[in-house]
Structures are given as structure tokens and as C-alpha cells.
Amino acid sequence: MEQGYNSLERNKAEFSDLLAIFFFLDSRIDRAIGRKEEINSNLQTMIRFILLQNRQGKTRLGKYYVPLEDSEKHKVEFEVHRLVVNRDPKFTNFVEFRTHKVIYRRYAGLFFSMCVDITDNELAYLESIHLFVEILDHFFSNVCELDLVFNFHKVYLILDEFILAGELQETSKRAIIERMGELEKLD
Questions:
Q1: Residues 99-111 pLDDT 10s
Q2: Nearest CA to 51 among 148, 147, 123?
């Protein structure tokens, strides 16, 4: 009987040790999952919107990847235009905007602006603006503001080939131009 009692006590002790290990591992797993979710949320970079505006403030192209009311869109367009037009050319092409960052570049009379998260790489987006302009220039053979106005549907197609859901989708100029050539054949 005493031997059975000792066995029972030993089993209780082992069970208690296993239970302590289980709770220890469970808490470590919960912390690891929490850190993983925090890291993943930090890695989710996104373009909030893209604007092409002339010097007078007319928006020639506006693509929003976050939901905004029309009144808020007009307010954003006005504020972004005011920010980039009045900025001295000797300053950088990055400016803080609300809780985000606007990266812009001026080509002739047009301002190409992207709003991104504050932690995103500015130079990568500046380079993507330049690539977008190169693609437009190649597609329209020396692009001008009127090309954007009268062929806005093609500009949106190019933009959708380049950026999808606020993320850079394709960075190969040749691939985008080939895809646009295929789409032109269908018309």
C-alpha cells in the first residue's frame, strides 16, 4: 500500500512538473505569436495614394488605395499640392504629411506624389516614381499633360500593371511595356 502511495505522489509531482512546463511554454508561445504579429504589422508597407497634379493644382490622376470620402480626397489633394508646390527645390523630395510621408517629384509642369507609411524607404519610392514616368514616356512617346488627360484610361492601366493594391507589383519596365503592348493589340 505504501508503495502505491509513493507511486501516486511521484505521479503527482511529475504531473505538476509537466503542468509547469506546459504553462511556461504556453506563455512563451503567446509572446512569440504577439511579436510575430507586431513584426508582420510593421512589415506591411503600403502606398496610400498617388497623385499627378499640375502647377495650378488640377489633379490629372488620383489613385487611392485606402478608402476616403470624396470631400476628404479633395482636401488631401489640396493639402498635398500646397505642400509640394511651395517647397524650395533645394530641399529633399520627402515631406511629412499628417501621420504619413509624401514623396514627390516634379517633371516639367507635373508633380508626381505618393503618400506612404512614415517608416517606408523614401528612395525606393522616388525611384518608382521615376520608373513610372519612364514607362509613361515610352508608351506615349514623349508624354505630356494632354496625354494624361485624353488617355487617362491607359494611364490607369499602366498604373495598375505597376502598382496593385498599394504595393509595387512589377518593377520591370520591359515587362510592363510588353504587357501594355498585348493589351493594345486587343483593342
A1: 899 999 998 889 9
A2: 148
